[in-house]
Amino acid sequence: MEKFNPLRAILLATLHARPTEATSRYELMTISNQIFGAIDSPYSPGAIYHEAKKLLEAKMITINHESLHIAPLGADWLSALLSSEDLPGSITGRVYYLIVADLCGQPRLRQEAFKRIEIEMIKIDHLMPKSEHSKTGMNRALNTCLSHLIPAIQKSVIDIGAYK
User: Fold this and answer.
1) Burial class (CB in 10 A: 0-12, 13-18, 19+), 3
2) Whole-prediction pTM
């Protein structure tokens, strides 16, 4: 499988959660940008449309009268991403992974992905140096960010799980 692509994952998760609803590329852009806009710069319409075209070429989605639907190959890709593929390496990637897991619309897969991210956050927390004296300036900044992000992501996993 290719490197984690947040846009691809969010588009597929959105379509996976709406199997019977007609979803246009414009609606996908709106939904995706609501998500990305809260975290980072929103994607341009061209980026959304280009990724949808790539998904269509890869047979991961189908288009019927401008309505997009996830295809079995796309559902399989999403399932593998959330259940067995390596987690994204960056904290931002893991936040996107968490969002994708929440969007996917399949409770078992969602819980499995949440458990994976929770375990990974615990591992990172245990690997962080605990002594302030052993940190250089850059490491100190990174570890300070991680020390706040790890509990926030762990809390997000618990909070999102409690709502569904």
Assistant:
1) exposed
2) 0.75
